[in-house]
Amino acid sequence: MFDVKGYFNDKGDEYTLTTPKTRAPYINCLVNNKGYCFSINQHGGGETLCKFEFTEKNTITDNNERTIFFRDDETNDVWCAGGFPFVSEVEEFKCTHGQSSTVISSAHNGIEVSVRTFVPLDRRCDIQTVTIKNLSDRERKISIFPAIKLLLS
Q1: What is the pTM (predicted TM-score) of this model?
Q2: What is the pLDDT of residues 79-104, one digit of tens each?
Q3: pLDDT, tens only, 103-140
């Protein structure tokens, strides 16, 4: 099955978007049995909910208030794997929403980045792993800046 924005894999358990620019967010909800839920969209933003007590639900982050910025230290060019905030355009964008994780990858000026987000079964948190690959023929220095806006009440 294929549409303008992406496609399902052969098993039908993952959907891959091929563009960060959609009319509405494509969201994956990653949950565990500890009361932790992280909904993530194709840009890497989303909402974090955590149930601390049986009747209490706290929103920790909301909307697109988290991202990982990458910077080429030679040119000071800044971008995000998910293409948002739209600081710089990305190429070869892919966002794969699966049953247990979301992987967002793209390339920008000869640097390929990938961010995998998942929720462990036994912890009240989400974990992100970052992979950076130099596709150019010269040495590069890349800085990474995670950014998050917390909602504490």
Answers
A1: 0.88
A2: 999 988 767 889 999 999 999 999 99
A3: 999 999 999 999 999 999 998 889 999 999 999 999 99
Whether the Cβ atoms of residue 117 and residue 25 lie closer than 8 Å to each other: no
Residue type (1 letter), 80? C
- SS in 3 state form for the chain? CECCCEEECCCCCCEEECCCCCCCCCCEEEECCCCEEEEECCCCCEEEEEEEECCEEEEEECCCCEEEEEEECCCCEEEECCCCCCCCCCEEEEEEECCCEEEEEEEECCEEEEEEEECCCCCCCCEEEEEEEECCCCCCCEEEEEEECCCCC
Gap between the terminal Cα atoms of the chain: 44
